[in-house]
Amino acid sequence: MSFDIVVIGAGPAGLCFTRSLAGSGLRVALVERQEEAALSAPADDGREIAITHHSRRLLRELGLWARLREEEIGTLRDAMVLDGDDRDGLMFRHGEAGTEQLGWLLSNHAIRRAAYEEVMALPEVERITGVRVEAVRTGNEGAEVVLGNGDTLRASLLVAADSRFSETRRAMGIAADMRDFGKTMLVLRMRHQVPHEQVAWEWFGHGQTLALLPLHDAHTSSVVLTLAPPAMRELLALDDAALEAALAERFGQRLGTMTVAGPRCTYPLVGVYAKRFVAERFALLGDAAVGMHPVTAHGFNFGLLGEDLLARELRAARAAGQSIAAPALLARYERRLRLATRPLYLATNALAGLYTDDRRPARALRKLALGAGARLSPFRRMVMSGLTAEHGGIPAPLRRLRPPRWV
Ligand SMILES: Cc1cc2nc3c(=O)[nH]c(=O)nc-3n(C[C@H](O)[C@H](O)[C@H](O)COP(=O)(O)OP(=O)(O)OC[C@H]3O[C@@H](n4cnc5c(N)ncnc54)[C@H](O)[C@@H]3O)c2cc1C
Q1: What's the 232 CA to ligand 1 centre distance in angstroms?
Q2: The pTM of the whole model exceeds 0.85
Q3: DSSP H helices in 150-206
Q4: Would you say the CB of residue 9 lies under 6 angstroms from ligand 1?
Q5: CA-CA distance, 359 to 376, in Å (whole number)?
Q6: How far is the centre of ligand 1, averaged over its atoms, from the C-alpha of 363 (Å)?
Q7: Looking at residue 396, which CATH number applies to its domain?
Q8: Which residue range forms the structural domain that includes residue 366?
Q9: How many domains would you assign to the chain?
């Protein structure tokens, strides 16, 4: 079977990228190992994704936003960062950015569902689900993907969006920097007595990191707790009533009574940055290229940025009758995505390291960092513009070079 592009991985990044190519004239095969039923009704994985203004614009253009139900969209008005036992933290207010809110919160499974619905409506996309990828090859002549059912797919370009632990990246011989933070993150939706007032909390306590992400309902939030694995195992052994009491205690009773309102989902914390994003007739996308630590809430936002950059390049090449796998095109994609993501990837790892280290020098350093952050307006501006800017962090000279999306 022959296509213009084979995409491996129908996660949020692979789906949004496939949707971005709609109407371009490019024939796409989307390969996913999960079954169709799991893709059309994705399971709740507990993740609430903070969406920047730039990402929201892209989700609107892709038609996903209109497919989200009102109760699936949370408002991220302001954000507060607390350190240790401090009662007053560093506050990031929407007003400083000149916007009505800092961002939005969407459930990951709602994003996946909406993206899948969009892709299902595309006649030029062949969905190949419930299959394993046995082998991939790319060369001068084209790309080939051998599936577990014996079929071989041929294409001009292969795009891998198959998670931060991408098997395709490895099969293509592309190495990645990986940082294992040695911690586990629990995400759990909870109802609480005190309203959240649409303020997100990031609380760096001693021996734990806690976050609260405000959801649509004023008394429901996503609780995000990072602990060392043994402590997390102990916590997860508790029944709901004991877990609720333990979490209310960890929040210093600031939210009043808390009750479990969703599944308990845990994730190992590993940051991944591929050494290269492209190879001959090949590109990495989403977490397969840049797998962020969730503390700065940018993984999917970068996934959207990347799919938009690559899709624009491909559409422009197709419209001009040029090769969609030209080395210069792929090199441009790599350069732009690297420039837009590398600084925050490194800063996030440094921050995550600093805030999960409870030794005295680290504690002192973060007190200093938070104090400076509260006072220095350039630092505040950098954080605020990461959330609220419409350009998604792409440096100004590169923005001018981007081809328009709808060529
Ligand atoms: C707890 C948590 C909180 C987060 N919060 C935020 C946030 O606030 N903001 C934000 O922007 N990001 C956030 N993220 C990151 C965000 O969830 C990810 O960046 C995003 O889901 C990555 O999408 P993806 O499509 O690249 O990869 P994935 O979601 O991992 O999807 C990969 C897909 O590829 C498929 N696949 C894998 N291997 C193969 C194969 N060999 N063959 C076929 N198919 C395959 C998988 O089945 C899957 O469907 C968070 C992440 C976590 C864990």
Answers
A1: 22
A2: yes
A3: 167-171
A4: yes
A5: 26
A6: 32
A7: 3.50.50.60
A8: 5-178+269-401
A9: 1
